[in-house]
């Protein structure tokens, strides 16, 4: 076994591999930072390059793209309030206020980079140690559990609605409805398509995301920069790595979010977007600084970022141990491995241990390289806040159009983006939460399909939801989470009284 | 002067209408549970419609009860700053239409200077440089490196 | 002076943009060719199309293919996009077997007649896959079990009304059994997870997502709905052999919008032929768990036409659950 590890280290740490890794991670970060370019697109783009390299080297480059892209989304999320990938939508909630209102873009970027790197490394280590066990857990998830998990995700709407909870619910319902447009895969029927070919495909998610976050945000900037004198903000950053005080504050959140992210990653079909919101919500619930969330709370940045990068290691678990890809990116990785003669599945660990160790090391290195990239570029990226608005705003507008069009080459997507952008502008003014809408769109389909499917499997009996332990647990957590605004105040009062009684 | 109270009324009305419309359309798809398990196609949309109607009603009630509080919250919609936003929105819609006809680069040549002018930039040289650099960057990244197709003029 | 420089720069950019737009068209292909794949990245259609294109590039001077994925609506939007594109040879697409089905389900007016076929690299048959420790070891034993337990056996598919669901209905009709249809809209990977985890009993689907489990011995394949036995699963009998003529394959074909000129079409077909006959291409396909086919041009078109007729009959005779 030691031979294998030694050989793996030699292969993973060879100069060629490291070079490929740097190229891949760099490309990944850039692709992630640009709204409209997705992780899957980046991996699919660089995939043909892997044919030129033997063995696992090309795969490691793709791993770099994978990790880099998930991290890259946070850069535009923090600096421009525009998630570069759906997985960074939650990072805008506290990342942008810290960069903008508090004027600390460097600190925000530093926290996000550290969170991403920690989450990625944590999940890579979990992959190495617990892969077979976690794979077994992944297999126990059936439709009832997926429904309960999706319901839990939807219940987070009440938590991310920084404005009015009621309007958050309305926005969430709107998102859920948008998710139903198109062909219902469970019955084969067409819903709300009004004979339009575009609508049969459903309203694409990315244009709505870009519209609701980027476009509406830049419209708000047009308003806020009226009569604003150009002030060059002092963004001198003495240290890119977060200070010890910050580290202490977020330590628990780091571990919790990485754990949640790894777990969610290893469940096939769930990804960084769900994970980041759940981690944000949990961080908020357990934090001492609840009220600060939404105003630039460090925990609010670290939680979603470590949560979404931890998914990378988790998603590799079912892919490697069972040969079952969890999402589009891992599906391409699976194909890339098979081309090189590496056969993921139950026999992988016994037949090809050296390749497995190399992949593990590759993932670990990918996250470390990503962290290094991130920290070294923080100084450069923070300068973006000093770009005069007259230049920045038109450029971002162009970016939204180009990004939306390059997603599916559809002009209708662009119209959808503009529509939701304008709608989002007015909704933001009236205290709606854009994250609620996005959560609805992401999770609506999963919730409905698994609810319906679970009932199909149980022949219409609801007991399926209450007799399966994991499902029951998630259902209870969802209900508690949905109701939290109602009893949140009472619980706080009880705690306060207890504290005072103890003091007295 | 627009205050939150008026906005809430409008929002409640729109949400309620939308919710009811969704109900009506979902009814055509069938609401309820199927015999051998599973739900009909219209059930889940009907639930979302229901949430919307419910939230709209609660919002209406809350706004009525807390009239004073909401009246005091101002929603800024009429300042010159906002008018500039509406102008930009108009430009964007026009740009969408132009994209189809003139393609990305030519429309961009019109859009970027137009936006910069609206935002107060009067330095022609700066405008020109930003336009050229932005379009060149888009060309390099999207056309050359990524090879994605961008909207083309109808006469090409 | 600066003004002049800016003017020059502007005209260079404008000129370059116009030129790329016009695509100074010389010999075909003189520009990148866009290929629209109506399925998500990483699936069978996407993998086989990209694979074919990679090997076609090697056999076709100057060709560069750019693949975009448009999986919305089960692939309708992507296929419609291809059909509506200019038949100038710079937009191609992949179409899948669903093309022959959607027109009967009221989802679109589009049929295979809107396309000129180039090649068909993949035609994955429906394979009956069950857990390794299941009490049945052949198609007939499975059918017998289903007859004793009507409606109890849960068979996974990739969506109500989609191809694997139809394969299940065909089996029910042919053998006179009833099973429970459980849709997994996110694809065969989810079905693989569900069977391996023991949540459903069987599936009739493309075997490529299950190969790793079959080889590891956790799942077994009882039969395939193809013309001949698969190279990947040589011990598995076809339904035809067992006396029931059921051939259901999820094919994907590389096509061009109808009206492409003879010369370019022939050039593409030749490149595809050379690609599919090369050993490297076949090896690549096998490594991905895909059985390589070699239908070119008119052969591919014939398959599309045959399946169109078959599904026409299917949708007229089979009653789908409402």
Give a short overview.
The complex is a heterotrimer of chains A (504), B (156) and C (322). With 156 residues, chain B is an all-alpha fold.
Written overview of the protein:
The complex is a heterotrimer of chains A (504), B (156) and C (322). Chain A has 504 residues and is mostly helical. Chain A contains 22 helices and two strands. In chain A, strands 1-2 form a two-stranded antiparallel sheet. The N and C termini of chain A lie far apart (62 Å). The mean pLDDT of chain A is 87. Chain B has helices at residues 4-29, 43-65, 67-72, 80-118, 124-145. In chain B, helix 1 packs antiparallel against helix 2 (43-65) and helix 4 (80-118) packs across helix 5. The longest helix of chain B has 39 residues, at 80-118. The mean pLDDT of chain B is 86. Chain C is an alpha/beta fold and 322 residues long. Chain C folds into two domains: 29-124 and 250-317, D-Maltodextrin-Binding Protein, domain 2, CATH 3.40.190.150; 127-224, D-Maltodextrin-Binding Protein, domain 2 (3-Layer(aba) Sandwich), CATH 3.40.190.10. Chain C is elongated and about 85 Å long. Chains in contact: A-B, A-C, B-C. The interface between A and B is large, with 61 and 68 residues.
Question: Percent range for helical residues of chain C?
Answer: 40-55%
Q: How would you state the average pLDDT of chain C, rounded?
A: 85
Helix content of chain A: over 70%
- Uncertain stretches of chain A: none
Task: Indicate the CATH architecture of the largest domain in chain C.
Answer: 3-Layer(aba) Sandwich
Multimeric state of these chains? heterotrimer
Number of distinct helices of chain A:
22
**Helix-strand string of chain A:** HHHHHHHHHEEHHHHHHHHHHHHH
